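testing teh design pipeline on a random one, pls ignore if ur not involved
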């Protein structure tokens, strides 16, 4: 018997029946570890790796094939080999106790050069083989090898071989077919093993990045818990990944995710296991770590690994750009016995980090869990309120400063809570936007706003109604049909409605999703950019969005003149901003509405500087529709106009009234 590994040697070949020509063997012998085509060999080794057999010892299944071959051909030695980068890995054996053979000069290394059976009838009779250690020291005289050809791509990954210490005649045609057929059976069994290996791989790994998947991280977490070890987990979520995915396509997004996985794995440097939980969310499990500073330090290192630019589809993306690949991180620690809650805790920390902006990192604390439970309860209650029709609209007057007349009203959402009474948007709007009912409620606001505008018109109050859009209404893709349908049902001209959207909503949607706004604007519906100056990309929004009006955020208006002198002191910067927005509006041919007007001095200042319209507590707080009608009739002097209200009349009825399964309509007197 030989040792477990046979020494390195050099091997030449001799042609025989159905054999590889000797000249080819000689050329290839010189190229096996030198000038061989690295690309093709790399692909062959990649194919070999797909079977998951190169790192395992000999197996009984393949021993049986080796035994069968030896019995059929009545030879004392048979091996099933895989040809790795440097060694032959023995998977099955009969008559020779060996697990690995150096590839250089090995007979099987030549077998994989052709799809044909390779036979050397007498190794010692050929001067090119006579001096080889496998011949001179072990007495090998005969060799026959049949390549194992992968059906994946035709690469030859190994061989089934026969060896004897006495020479034999070349194999005849029948024996060649039999030997090749037996090698095909070996390959069939390897294909089964490849499928099993693939299933095991997919059960524990993300197929795109190769990182551990959620199930694998769960198993590792359970292992740490069973061993009584502490652990830490870092959860990372890419900022603005959706923008890259939507802009360049899913293939580019996949490329980015693969590169992110590589960078994070390198930054982790074996200190834990990197997993991809789905989408653009990655997790690093760190068994044995119970130090908060160390865990947060590692989280920052992982974030910093994403700082260098990514080259995706020929474009460079840097952190902080409009299409960035920075990441937010949530970190959680768990003492022994409590490791099972790691992922949920890290997820809450990540939720907190993302709510505070891009590239944040937060360590979990129990208060986060309490806040999350309260937030989820609120979201569920808000969804119930939408289904039960507990929302209503209040209206705030909008005044034409030049003529002093009431020309419009902004419809503002309120919640008539069964126990807490009337709640303002600050109490529920975030929860509504995060839930599944935002689109339905937004559509109801459009419908109810149009219904109320029609009712007022029949009562002599001709007003433009402004309604605020939710991001979900833009994403849903049916905004144009919703608006046109409401206008037709209530027999309103397009100019009677104005849609208000924030810079943040516009920034998060590409031009295709904003197309309905362009169509509605062309139809005559007004489009206002709300809270102008508070977002991230105001000027770019002016080019992308089809606008009728800019609305100056109340934060720039409500404090004007609070120190007693407009344009001096602490409000000077606000004055400059307001003047700049008014000049911008004039230059672009857009109307400007100032929000948050609280005093007569502010109204006078805005009028003097060419502001078209204003709204705020100076003119009236948001009130139910009947109250606005009454105020318009009784306070026309305050607006400085004859008044548009002529007298009460019954509310108009639509041409067709669609039912709403989400929000109960409220009628206004």
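output:
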């Amino acid at each position: 018997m030989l040792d477990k590994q046979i020494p390195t040697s050099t091997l030449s070949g001799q042609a025989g029946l159905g054999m590889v020509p000797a000249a080819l063997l000689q050329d290839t012998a010189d190229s096996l570890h030198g000038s061989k085509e690295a690309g093709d060999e790399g692909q062959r080794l990649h194919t070999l790796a797909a079977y998951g057999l190169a790192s395992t010892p000999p197996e009984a299944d393949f021993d049986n094939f080796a035994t069968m071959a030896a019995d059929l051909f009545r030879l004392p030695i048979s091996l099933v080999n895989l040809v790795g980068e440097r060694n032959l890995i023995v998977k099955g054996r009969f008559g020779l106790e060996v697990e690995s053979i150096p590839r250089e000069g090995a007979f099987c290394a030549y077998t994989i050069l052709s799809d044909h059976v390779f036979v050397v009838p007498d190794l010692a009779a050929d001067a090119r083989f006579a001096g080889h250690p496998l011949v001179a020291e072990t007495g090998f005289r005969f060799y026959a090898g049949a390549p194992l050809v992968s059906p994946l791509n035709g690469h030859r990954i190994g061989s089934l071989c026969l060896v004897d210490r006495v020479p034999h005649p070349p194999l005849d045609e029948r024996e060649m077919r039999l030997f090749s057929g037996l090698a095909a059976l070996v390959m069939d069994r390897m294909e089964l093993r490849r499928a099993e290996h693939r299933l095991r791989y997919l059960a524990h790994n993300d197929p795109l990045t190769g990182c551990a998947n959620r199930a694998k991280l769960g198993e590792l977490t359970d292992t740490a818990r069973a061993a009584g070890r502490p652990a830490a987990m870092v959860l990372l979520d890419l900022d603005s990944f959706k923008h890259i995915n939507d802009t360049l396509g899913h293939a580019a997004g996949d490329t980015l995710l693969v590169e992110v996985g590589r960078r994070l794995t390198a930054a982790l440097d074996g200190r834990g296991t990197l997993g991809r939980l789905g989408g653009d969310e990655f997790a690093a499990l760190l068994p044995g770590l119970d130090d908060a500073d160390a865990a947060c330090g590692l989280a920052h290192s992982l974030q910093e690994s994403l700082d260098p630019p990514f080259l995706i589809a020929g474009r460079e993306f840097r952190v902080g750009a409009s299409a960035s690949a920075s990441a937010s991180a949530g970190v959680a620690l768990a003492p022994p016995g409590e490791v099972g809650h790691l992922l949920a805790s890290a997820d809450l920390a990540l939720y907190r980090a993302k709510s505070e902006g891009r590239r944040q990192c937060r360590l979990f604390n129990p208060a986060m869990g309490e806040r999350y439970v309260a937030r989820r309860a609120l979201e569920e209650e808000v969804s119930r309120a939408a289904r039960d029709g507990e929302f209503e609209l209040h209206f705030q007057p909008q005044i034409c400063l030049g003529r002093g007349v009431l020309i419009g009203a902004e419809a503002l959402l309120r919640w008539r809570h069964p126990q807490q009474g009337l709640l303002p948007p600050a109490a529920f709007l975030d929860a509504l936007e995060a839930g599944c009912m935002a689109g339905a409620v937004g559509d109801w606001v459009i419908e109810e706003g149009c219904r109320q505008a029609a009712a007022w018109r029949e009562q002599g109050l001709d007003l433009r109604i402004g309604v605020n859009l939710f991001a979900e209404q833009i994403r849903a893709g049916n905004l144009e049909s919703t608006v046109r349908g409401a206008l037709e049902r209530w027999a309103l001209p397009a100019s009677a409605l104005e849609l208000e959207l924030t810079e943040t909503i516009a920034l998060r949607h590409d031009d295709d999703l904003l197309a309905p706004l362009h169509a509605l604007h062309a139809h005559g519906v007004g489009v206002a950019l709300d809270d102008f100056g508070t977002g991230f990309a105001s000027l770019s929004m002016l080019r992308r969005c089809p606008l009728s009006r800019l609305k100056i955020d109340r934060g720039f208006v409500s404090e004007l003149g609070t120190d007693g002198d407009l344009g001096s002191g602490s409000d000077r910067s606000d004055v400059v901003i307001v003047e700049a927005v008014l000049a911008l509006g004039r230059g672009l041919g857009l109307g400007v509405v100032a929000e948050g007007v609280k005093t007569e001095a502010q109204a006078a200042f805005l009028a003097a500087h060419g502001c078209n319209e204003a709204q705020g507590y100076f003119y009236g707080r948001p009130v139910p529709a009947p109250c606005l009608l009454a105020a318009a009739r009784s306070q026309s002097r305050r607006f400085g106009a004859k008044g548009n209200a002529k007298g009460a009349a019954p509310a108009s009825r639509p041409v067709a009234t669609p039912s709403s399964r989400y929000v109960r309509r409220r009628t206004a007197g």
